[in-house]
Design goal:
Blueprint lengths: L8 E7 L2 E3 L2 H4 L11 E9 L4 E10 L6 E10 L13 E2 L8 E3 L3 E4 L3 E5 L4 E9 L6 E3 L4 E6 L12 E2 L1 E4 L2 E4 L1 E2 L1 E8 L4 E7 L18 E7 L21 H10 L4 E7 L2 H5 L15 H17 L3 E5 L22 H14 L8 E3 L5 E2 L2 E5 L12 H9 L9
Helix pairs in contact: 2-4
Length: about 400
């Protein structure tokens, strides 16, 4: 029997958290110009770990009908998702077959495909779906996808590719159909860290490889607008995802090789109830409700032997959340912000069950501590690229060394 300390292991090298929405609702199929059911989707993602083999997880968990995957390939690809290196093209199989039907409410993990890949490399996944109009499980963070009519799984370049994007008043989204996880068969000692949160962490990935830490994959489990203790509500409810306490087991604990998680979730629980667009739909959360939610995450993580860190909830003064062209949806006030400060203090106390706390106070404006540094934010709460880099730099690298 292989020694687990020296044997290769499956490790998640990329992930996205799925939501319940159809391609028709996102407008993707309309842009193809004809009524279609048989479409190829090519998604390019950046891997955060390398290995000798690759396997995929395709999900139909929100589907009400079976999802028919007629063909699937992987290859080293271009960042825009249109082109691939044909020398690296590999056929992906499922139980030895080149096609699979994924039942409603189910997910499917492929067989291993022999393709050496490296951390930082772009992998292109091309899937030919029959009946794609019935798909109801998509991701919105972490990839770049294009759609084209017919079976294009072996095509080097998609010539008439339609970008799979959704633009709404609540933001711009990259639509990732069905693909939720990519694992690699990595060397012994490689492990995954999952970032679990909302849009304030959607793009922050610590740059570990540049500092010589080669055995850690960092994957995403973020949903824009997501809340810790309650599901999304309102016109964009499905885009906002299910409550963090409900999706944690699926989006974090189920990831291959994951043994640590960084949580930065809760800002929307605090802000949304005070928004004009949410009046009558939400009531303000309490300290007890929020800490119970965080305790639930810690209990689930520890039951699986996973370490968990809570990140400081960052300032949001100046955020107005203009949605649906209706003007300012919220105005910051000390009363609205008091619970954030109370929770940040609790994260640092002995009563908090996490393995550690990650302070992010360096992101606050020294001249206005209730707000982010102006150069770090686009709207008072979300980060510019400079803000993303600054947040990543505040995550201590020693927590990744096991």
């Amino acid at each position: 029997m292989d020694d687990p300390k020296t044997a290769a292991r499956w490790v998640s090298a990329w992930s996205t958290s799925p939501i319940d929405a159809s391609l028709s609702e996102s407008g993707v199929l309309d842009r193809l110009g004809v009524a279609v059911t048989d479409v190829s989707a090519r998604t390019a993602v950046q891997l955060t770990a390398g290995g000798t083999h690759v396997r995929l997880t395709l999900s139909n968990i929100f589907g009400v009908l079976p999802l028919h995957v007629a063909a699937c390939t992987i290859a080293i690809g271009a960042d825009d998702a249109r082109g691939i290196d044909p020398a690296t093209l590999r056929t992906v199989t499922f139980g030895g077959q080149t096609h699979v039907r994924i039942g409603a409410g189910e997910s499917c993990t492929s067989d291993a495909a022999a393709l050496p890949v490296a951390a930082g490399q772009t992998l292109a996944v091309t899937v030919f779906y029959r009946g794609i109009n019935a798909m109801r499980t998509i991701g919105l963070i972490g990839g770049c996808s294009h759609a084209e009519l017919g079976n294009c799984t072996r095509r080097t370049l998609l010539h008439m590719a339609v970008p799979m994007q959704h633009t709404a008043d609540s933001g711009a989204y990259e639509v990732i159909p069905a693909l939720t996880e990519i694992d690699v068969l990595a060397t012994a000692g490689t492990h995954a860290c999952v970032i679990f949160g909302d849009s304030t962490v959607a793009n922050e990935l610590p740059r570990l490889r540049a500092d010589g830490i080669e055995n850690v994959s960092v994957t995403q489990a973020a949903i824009k607008g997501d809340r810790l203790v309650a599901d999304g509500v309102g016109r964009a409810a499905k885009l906002l995802g299910g409550a963090g306490v409900k999706r944690f087991a699926r989006d974090v604990l189920a990831q291959a090789g994951a043994d640590m998680v960084l949580v930065k979730l809760g800002a929307n629980d605090l802000i949304h109830p005070h928004c004009q667009s949410k009046q009558g739909l939400l009531t303000p959360v309490t300290f007890a409700q929020m800490t119970a939610g965080y305790r639930a995450l810690a209990d689930m993580a520890h039951a699986q032997g996973m370490r968990i860190w809570f990140c400081e909830l960052t300032p949001w003064k100046g955020y107005t959340r203009n949605l649906f062209g209706r003007g300012d949806d919220i105005q910051w006030s000390p009363e609205y912000d008091a619970l954030r400060l109370e929770l940040n203090a609790w994260f640092q106390g002995a009563d908090c069950p996490a393995d550690g706390y990650i302070p992010l106070d360096a992101l606050a404006d020294p001249n206005n501590p209730d707000a982010l540094v102006p150069a770090y934010t686009t709207d008072g709460v979300h980060h510019t690229p400079a803000g993303q880099r600054a947040l990543a730099a505040l995550i201590p690298e020693d927590i990744f060394v096991t």
